[in-house]
Amino acid sequence: MEETHGVLGKKKGLPCNINPRDKDDAVAMVLWFKESIGEPLYRDGSFSRHTNYCRLSVAAYSFDVRARSYKDAKQWSSPTVFGSRALFRPSTVPATLVIDKIQQSDEGIYRCRVDFSNSPTRNSKVNFTVIVPPEKIHIYDDKRIDKSVLLGPYNEGSDVNLLCEVKGGRPRPRVVWFLENTVIDDSYDNRSDGVVVNHLTFPNVGRQHLHARLICQATNNNIVPPETKAVVLDINLKPQSVSILTKEKHVSADKRYEVECRTSGSRPDAVITWWKGSRPVKRLAKNFAQQNNQSLSILNFVPVIDDDGKYLTCRAENPAIQESALEDKWRLNVHYVPVVTLKMGSTLNPQDIKEGDDAYFECNIRANPKAYKLSWFHNNVEIYQNVTGGIILSDQSLVLQNVVKSTAGEYTCVATNSEGRGTSNPVKLIVKYAPVCIQEREEVYGALKQETVALRCEVDANPPVASFHWTFNNSGDQTDVSSEKYTTEVTSSLLNYTPNTDLDYGTLLCYGENEIGRQKEPCVFQVVIAGRPSQLQNCSLLNQTANSLQVECVEGYDGGLTQSFYMEILELPSLRSRFNLTTYKAPVFVADGLDPGTTYRIMLYAVNKKGRSEATVIDPVTFKGVAKLQGATASMPVSPLIMGLLGTAGILATGVCLVLAALCRKHYARPCHRPDANSTKHVPMEAVINADDLIVDGSITGVRTPNSSIEHTITAEAIRNGNTIEATDPDIIRNQYERRPLHGFMQVYEYEPPGCREEDDQEDDGEGYAFKHVAKEIHAPSQTMYRSLQRPCRTNPVPPPAIAGSQTLTHKYRGPEVVTTSNRIQESCI
Asked: What does the pLDDT look like over 361-375, one tens digit per residue?
């Protein structure tokens, strides 16, 4: 029997002599068995004569060479023993059964049976032992700190105490300490928990041991290399000198400085630490190793106000070596922005300040150099002394007299010196006050009878509102609203109000109350009968281009309901709708994609759920074909100033011409046949001129309207109502300022062609035309109104004569009446 050892997880070969005794003999088959109790794993008819023997062994491997060469031999491995891990190598001397990835279960006694062609069978045994190597080595110091990476640093002359622990291994490993290649401790202990321990005491380490290696080795076989763990000794030596290289006369707080400190004579590099006063400065320095046993430390130092007068110290030492430290000190003179602290007066209770009380603040300033200015701020807005307003600044104090709600907020003080401005901490002043309505003005709600509107009363109060109270006022009668009809929330109250009769429309007042008192000014809600909104006012065209425009209007009364705004653009003269737009925020409309060279009418409405307002009409709006000319000639820009000057000159020239025409007509006019003003047949020239100037495009824009559209663009209807007369025109956009009513005396005349007068009233001026006095006194200041009206003639009507300045009157005879006014009546004969 041969003894063979293998290492767990490694590879090992089991020997077997297969050489035949005779030269002419040959191997027929090689069989491997592992002795154990039980039935063999491999059974074949060729082994029937060995049945009794095989029951004590397990067939593990077979190598069949019968009728084959070694190269073509048939091999079989038991799947329960080796499986694919075994391979028989007959070419080695001796032949071996190589086992790969050795397992613990592979240990045991193996029998190799060799069958020859002629010679008897040969059996040999191998006692195979599996060695389990030790696990990873751990090195600890005497404080049970893992030193597997770094050992030390140790002080020069001190003792090194180490503990090497090895777990596992079969058989138990030997644990030995080496200094470099020299054994310094081979004593070890086998503990009951399977751990082998070696305690090392290495006394009096010195400079000669610097960077020396201490190696712990564990081994339990000579097949594989032993497990080792090496640590390097780090030994501290005392520094010899230290100095701060940069020392400023004074430094500024919150600015960064680099302070250098150099030391020498320490081995390894000295441990350089920085101190402010008695406290170390950490994580701000970088140390650099230099030649000749020198070290440099650079401190990124940012002084603060508390550093003023303190010492900045550079200390080089080996902390483990007593009395080894060397120091260099620098006294700091720190200039800093004032440090300001604000607090409320010590005699005040910050939680119990209400309107009408006095409050004061105290500002504490620390500064180097001394502060030369102090400012105060309320909600980040600087405040100044105002004795009459109750703001008093005294030294480093702020006094607020008779505080109100607006006085509340955050207060800060700011001190200034040569280093800058220092702002204090904010101190919040809380002022308790009675409830105040959040809404700034009276809210109007429109509702029909039996329609419920939700009225929300929101107030601002400190402390929060405890209760709400509602009242209703109609025609001077004020009644309380039952608390069952409204609900109270944290800062608001909701009243669902339903008017049932006309007397239920009026004013609802809401009052909140807290511990300070009752709300002085209530929240006001006006409930009115809902209706259609008012007409849009002051509509104007803006930003008109070749195919787009913008219209802006002023909204009127909304009818008590939420309103929207609607614009419709109609193409003239077909009145075909080309553009529709609805907006909800404000009456501002933008339309684009319109056709150049086309005339449009713009209809504008305000709409609520009760209906829409009367239309506001802008008519006509014409888009010139500018876009069509861009390809031919580029237009030359005209200065607005030049256009204004030209327009002004044209107006002045027109006025001069009109005045000259009036003077000439007065000079050449014949005396009138009848001086009676009540029966005059003459139209004053100024009246004609005024009529011509006033009635333009249905508005006062100064653009004349062609005769073809005069019936709907130049219309002034005199509507008699008692002693008043009102001129209305649906195409005129009313100004936001109403015109004053006409008061005074005004005469109205009708024109009659000859042949159409009644017999008893026929009076001629010599040329066959007459004016009939048809109106009495009406209210117009110093003006006379003439109305020309063409009546149907009974026989042979004659056209009216031409009248000076009659381009306005003569083409109006076929339409409605025309009203002209004049402050001065200059008669002339026709």
From this structure: 999 998 989 999 999
